[in-house]
Each structure stands twice: as structure tokens, then as C-alpha cells.
């Protein structure tokens, strides 16, 4: 997916939303092959980053890509169980396209809240209710047109030929996931509710990735009381 333009845009938005300070300790909960953490370390080499995933195959690919990098740790972690981290261990946490697949999203959110420091930031991405992959592909084509107005049809054709086997599997997998009742897809109010119940202050909640995913920026409330218990900033805030 690294060559897929909506995915590139999403990665940049997540990294910008995390906005970790110098020396921050950052967790990617459900890191896959480590694309986000590699991107973060290219921006800020002074971070301490931890990537966790249940798939050993994914982690092996992440390790292979990061042999030249320091200050990075890969751990096999099942996010359906209590996280193997201390309270308040991380300054920032990313959780991208993972929440929908765990057994209990509220339980995972409470664990992420626990291991986040006071005033720490959570950046969460999860599919909307009834996502349509056609909208994501449409965004890819639109951005391709804008960047390469003269040659975009040839570029698109080359991408389709090169990536068609992977795209077929990707589309089939997404259709299967949407039909599986064990996966969780949220309306705005539902997602907002479980975040607030987990103790997060919501800074923004808006659509991304061809408008087929929620992009949430949340904050762990510090110990000083808030006036309303809820912060709303930015054009897509709630």
C-alpha cells in the first residue's frame, strides 16, 4: 500500500497529528510492516518508537526494513489482552486500522489510555460504517490526475498491471471483512462515545482516506479538571 496515494496522504496526516516532541516515546499499536514508524523516524530521528503487532510475519518485514535504524523496538503483542507496558509509558500512540478488528474496542481504548502519559496524544484511524473502497480508489485517481495531468492514464495503467494481483486480494479481503459480524464499524456518535468512556478528550474527529475512515486526534486528560470535559477544535471536530 505504500505506493497508494490515499495511503501516503493518510500516513502524513497521522504523523502530523501525532506531532511528537523531541525525545518522545511513541507506540504504534498494530504497526503492520512498520511503515508509519519508518516515516516518523525519517522526520524525527530522536524519537524512541515501539511497534507492536500480532503477526510475526508483519514484524519480520518491519525488522528487515529497519536494520539500519536505532531507537526502534518491535514486539509481538495481542491487542485483545492487557498491553505489556507500564502506566503512562508513552507520549503519543498511533492506532491505524486496528480498532475494528479487535474483540472489544472499548477494552483496547482503555488500555491505550492507561499506557499514555497525562496530556499524551492518541491518533486513531478506523473505517467508517459501511466503507466503500471505490471512493478510496477514486481519490487515488484524482490525486494522480492533479500531480500528472498529461500522463496520468499511462501511470494508472502501469499501476493496475503491476498491482492487479494484490488489488484483487485487497478488495476481496475488504468485502469479506465487511460481511463478518465480528468486526466493528462505527458511526460518528458511537466512536465518539467509546472514546469519551475510555477517558479521552477528543480534539478532532473527521473523515480521511477517501472519506472512508475516521481520523481521530484524542488527548489523555491531565489531572487538572476541565471545564466541560470535552475539547472541540478544527474544522472536523465534534
Give me a quick take on this structure.
This protein is α/β, with parallel strands linked by helices and 238 residues long. The protein contains seven helices and seven strands; from the N terminus they run αβαβαββαβαααββ.
Explain what the structure shows:
The protein has 238 residues and is an alpha/beta fold. The protein has a seven-stranded mixed beta sheet, with helices on both faces. Helix 3 links the parallel strand 2 and strand 3. It contains seven helices and seven strands. The model is unreliable at 226-238 (pLDDT under 50). Helices cover 41% and strands 22% of the residues. The longest helix has 28 residues, at 152-179. It folds into two domains: 5-129 and 182-220, 3-Layer(aba) Sandwich (Rossmann fold); 133-179, no CATH class. Helix 5 (133-147) runs antiparallel to helix 6.
Amino acid at each position: 500500500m505504500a505506493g497508494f496515494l490515499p495511503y501516503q496522504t493518510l500516513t502524513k496526516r497521522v504523523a502530523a497529528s501525532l506531532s511528537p516532541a523531541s525525545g518522545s516515546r511513541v507506540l504504534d499499536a498494530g504497526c503492520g510492516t512498520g511503515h508509519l514508524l519508518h516515516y516518523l523516524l525519517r522526520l524525527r530521528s530522536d524519537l524512541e518508537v515501539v511497534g507492536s503487532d500480532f503477526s510475526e510475519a508483519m514484524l519480520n518485514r518491519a525488522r528487515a526494513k529497519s536494520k539500519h535504524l536505532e531507537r526502534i523496538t518491535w514486539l509481538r503483542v495481542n491487542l485483545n489482552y492487557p498491553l505489556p507496558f507500564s502506566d503512562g509509558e508513552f507520549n503519543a500512540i498511533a492506532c491505524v486500522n486496528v480498532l475494528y478488528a479487535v474483540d472489544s474496542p472499548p477494552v483496547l481504548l482503555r488500555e491505550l489510555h492507561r499506557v499514555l502519559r497525562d496530556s499524551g496524544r492518541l491518533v486513531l484511524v478506523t473505517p467508517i460504517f459501511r466503507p466503500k473502497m471505490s471512493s478510496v480508489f477514486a481519490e487515488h485517481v484524482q490525486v494522480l490526475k492533479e500531480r500528472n495531468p498529461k500522463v496520468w492514464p499511462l501511470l494508472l495503467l502501469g499501476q493496475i498491471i503491476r498491482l492487479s494481483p494484490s488489488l484483487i486480494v485487497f478488495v476481496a479481503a475488504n468485502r469479506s471483512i465487511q460481511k463478518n459480524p465480528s468486526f466493528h464499524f462505527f458511526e460518528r456518535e458511537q466512536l465518539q462515545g467509546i472514546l469519551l468512556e475510555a477517558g479521552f478528550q477528543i480534539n478532532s474527529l473527521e473523515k480521511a482516506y477517501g472519506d472512508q475512515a475516521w481520523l481521530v486526534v484524542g488527548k489523555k486528560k491531565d489531572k487538572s479538571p476541565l471545564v466541560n470535559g470535552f475539547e472541540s477544535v478544527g474544522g472536523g471536530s465534534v
